[in-house]
Amino acid sequence: MTETLKFFYAMILFLSLFLITTNVGGSYYGCETDADCPRSMNKDFYLKCVDKKCEWTAKI
Fold it and tell me: Keywords of this protein's UniProt record, alphabetized (predicted)?
């Protein structure tokens, strides 16, 4: 009985962590060109339009 409760507790914990990470990691800005991406305040990285999503790119 206790093993079953531990299993369900572990499954609920795992699923909640999975749902939280998918919600946090899933936010992208849609874009057509690089000008559609918001400006970055970071001097080492900028946002670039890749496959219609704004992604962080390092300045070289």
Answer: Membrane, Transmembrane, Transmembrane helix
